[in-house]
# Entry
Amino acid sequence: MEKQEALAALVALGHETRLDIFRLLMQAGPKGLAAGQIGERLALPPATLSFHLSQLKHADLVTFRRESRSLIYSAAYPVMNALLAYMTENCCQGAAASCEAAAPSTCQPEERHETPARARVRG
Amino acid sequence: MEKQEALAALVALGHETRLDIFRLLMQAGPKGLAAGQIGERLALPPATLSFHLSQLKHADLVTFRRESRSLIYSAAYPVMNALLAYMTENCCQGAAASCEAAAPSTCQPEERHETPARARVRG
DNA sequence: TCCATATTTCTAATATGATGGAAATATTGA
DNA sequence: TCAATATTTCCATCATATTAGAAATATGGA
# Structure
């Protein structure tokens, strides 16, 4: 993931309404939720909801599909995964020992620390 | 981690300059960097740098200590870890199977998926 | 085709965040 | 105490994001 992509995702998630929307979609799982359902649950006026969904779309944090009259939104898990991976990269460069002490779970300067699951994301 | 803490961290990281600062500090490791060093490397005027460091401080993403005339800033790894943990919580609630398919590395609805390192962060 | 539903786009008002020069504060060494 | 260094705070300006009503668009059912 490039810096600008990560930045776009962080900007998008750095707003309470959008964080709420995104978490709702994370919880909803791959099946997603119709825009109307989201607006209802979060008590958002249509225009406001649409604005925030648009921001999340531009950040590639959500995808959507049409199902009859409804647009079904779902969280873009791969992008979320890539963001998490990005945020743990380049940590404590050149000082693995002290870094391990400071941040055992996020800082993984050596490949051997990678879990198979995490490694899969980066490819 | 509470929602408001996570939100504050995301707001703080959702700005290019602050993301640059934070990544620089992540790379620098626990030894940290003096404010002046940061400003020099990122070509930021003192007032601008100080403003952004202040934002990062309020989000608890950085800590600082005085060393002679310099203020040494370093990344707050535990808060970063907590943020990563927060973002993977409550994923695909009640539908573990489909969630695993959608997000194998971040979505961990069952405790057994926790790594010891990640679990340590949440306590 | 016509109407109801679902959602987006347009628009203008409002609020908030960012910038950086200049002055103020804190620390140290002489 | 005084000067030099390091950083912050103050302040005014500028830029950008957010809000939500109203109108426009898209879809499907009768």
